[in-house]
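Discussion board: Methods & Data

I've been asked by a reviewer to show the raw model output for two of the constructs in my manuscript, not just the figures. I'm not sure how much to include, so I'm pasting the format here to get opinions. Each protein appears as its amino acid sequence followed by a line of C-alpha cells. Is this the kind of thing reviewers expect to see in a supplement, or should I convert it first? Here is construct A:
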Amino acid sequence: MNRSSPIPPPSRRFLAAALVLVLSACAFKPSGYGVGPQAERAAMLQNARPEPKPDTPGMYLALIDRMQSQGLYFASLAHIDAYEKQYGVTPDSTLLRADALRLTGQPEASADAYRALLATPLASRGYRGLGLVAGAAGDFDRAAHDLEAASALAPTDAATLSDLGYARLREGDVAGARVPLMKAAELDAHNATVLANVALLLLSQGHARDARALMDEQHFSSEVREAVRQDAAKVALARKGRRSIQGTEKARQPQVRPEEVPAATNGPSTATASARTPLPLLQRFAQ
C-alpha cells in the first residue's frame, strides 16, 4: 500500500496557482478602494519625496514668478490666491497678481492692482504697469505720463526707459523718445526689445540705412523687421497729427513782430545740428 496517494498533475497546477495568489495577497495590500498599481506607485513616490516647508513665503513667490516666466499666468493666479490665503497680501504678491491680470486680458482689475502698489516700495512697478495698460489700450499720452513717473522712481531700469521711449514714439514725440531709448540701450545693450525700439527710433528719425544695419547685426527675424516697419508708419502718422495740433496752437498765439526776433547766430541751430549728426550706435551694439 502507498502511504500517500500522489497528487494528479492538474491538481498540482491548481495548488501552485493558489499558492501564488496567497503570496501575492500577503505582499500587496491596496491602500484605498479602487486604487490600481500605477496609482499606488505614484502615492509611494510622493510619500518618498520631501514636501516643501510651509513657512517659506519667499520660495512660494519664486515658484509663482517662475510659472509666469513660463507663460502660466492663469495657474499663477490660482497660486497667488493660495499664497495670500496662507501668508497675507504683500506688495510682491500684488505685483505678481497685477502682471498676471494684465497678461490674461483683465485690464481693469490689473490697473486696480497696480494702483495699490503706488503707496508701497514697488511704486515704480505700479506706475510702469499702469503705463503698459494704457499703452495696450492705445492711450500713449497716458502711457508716457505713467512711464515717466516710473522712470523717475527707477532711473536705471532699462525696461522702463525703453517702454517710455516707445510710448513717446507712438504719441509722435520722436525727439522726446531719443534720450530714454539711448539710456536703455547703454544700460542693456543686448536686450532685443530695447534694440527693436532703437531701430524704430532710427527709422522715425529718417536713418533708414542705420536702422537696417542695426537689425542685420542683431539678426532680427523677418517678423520683427515687419513689426518695426509697421510701427514706424504709425509713428509717422502720430507725428503728423502732433505737428498739426502744434501748428493750430501756434496760430492761436499772438504774432511776434520782426523787431522782437533775436538776431541770428553764426552756424546751424542745435536742432539742425542734431538732425544732421548720425547717432553713434552701431559700433556699440555690434560688440
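Construct B, same format:
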Amino acid sequence: MNPIIEISMRDALTRYCKTVSILKKGYEQEKYRIDQISRSVLGSKMVNDISSVDIATYRDSRLQTINFRTKKPLSASTVRLELSLLSNFFDISRIEWGFCDDNPVKNVRKPKPPRGRERTLTPREERQILRYSFAHSNPDLYSIVVVALQTAMRQGEILGLLWENVNLKLRIAHLPETKNGSKRDVPLSIKARDALIRLGVKSSGKVFTYTSNGIKSTWRFMIKSLGIEDLHFHDLRHQAITNLFSLGTLDMMEVAAISGHRSLSMLKRYTHLKGQSLVKKLEGNKHKGKQVVLNHLIPYPAAIIRQDDSSYLVKMLDFNGLTADGACRNSAIRSAQDVLLRCIINAMRESCVIPQPDQYLDVVVEGVIVMIDPMGAMMDILD
C-alpha cells in the first residue's frame, strides 16, 4: 500500500481547481466555492487529517452564515453544492493522488434540499420589465427578456447564442452545447424572431454583448428600480415553460424537447394545473374547440384618455402597444373592441400566449379605466 502524501487542503484544492474544475462548464462558480473552502478552517488542515466531524462542523457553520447580498442565511442548496464539491475532491484525492485513504463527506448528512422555486411573473410585472428594458437600456436587454420568455432558454444558453446557429427563415436556434451536455434545437416564436432581427442580423459572432456578470447586475438594478420583489432572471424560464403548458397544444415530451429537461419529474412542477382546468378536462371533448375560443374572449382593462383635439385614445393595458382611437368616447371603445378581438384571434392562430386580464391595474394619471369586452359589452370600473 502506498504511503499517504501529506498536503494541506488549501494546496490540494488549488491543484483540484487547476486540473479538475477548469475542465467543467461551471468552472467560475466552482472556483468561487473552492476559494470559500480554502479560506475556512478546513484550508489549513492536512487532507488526510480531516474527519467527518470536521465536515459536519463546516456544514453547520455555513448554514448559519449570512449572505452579504440577501442578508439571509445561506441556502441549503448552496451548502449542498459545496459538500458535493468536497466529496468529489476527496474521491480524486484518495483514488488518483494518494492524499487520503477515505472520503469523510460520505458519512455526513446533507442539508435537506429546498422545494423547487415556483415564482412566476404577474402580467403587470412582465409589462413593467418589457417597458423598462425597451426604454432605458441598449437593445440587447429587451431582446434578451423577450427571447427568455418566448423560448424557455437558460441565461447561459441565451448569452452564448451565435448568429451562425440561428436560422431566422426556419425559426430555429441551434444550441450545440447545453447545461446537461446535449445539443438541441429551440423553435423561435414570431416575437422571439422579431426580437433577434431588431438587433441587426449578422452572419456570425455572438448575438448578445452581455456577459453573465453584466446581465446579473443589470437585472438587479432594473428589478430594484421597478420595485419588484424576489424575481430572478431564471424565473423568466419558469414563466416561459408555464406558458408552453398553458397553450394546451404541447404534451410534456414536446415541452421537454423545447426546454431541454432530461428528467420529466423536474418538469412536472411547471405545469401548475388549476382546479378550473381539471374541471374542463372532466367535461370531455364536447364543444371543445368552441370553448377554447370563448375562454379567451373575455373583458380586458383599458385606459381611455381624452386627447387635446377632443378625440379619445384607448390603451389596452395587458397588450403592449395595442391602442385604438375615435372621435368620441363610444366610437373609441367600439374601435378598441374590434382591435382586441383581432389581436386575440391572431394570437390563437399563431399559437401565441394570450395574457390574462391583470388584476393589478397600472396607475393612469388621466382618463378612466374601462373593461373592454371583445364580444361587445363595456363597463366602466374607475371614473
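Answer (T.O., handling editor elsewhere):
This is acceptable in a supplement if you add a one-line summary per construct. For B, something like: The domain at 9-107 is CATH 1.10.150 (DNA polymerase; domain 1).
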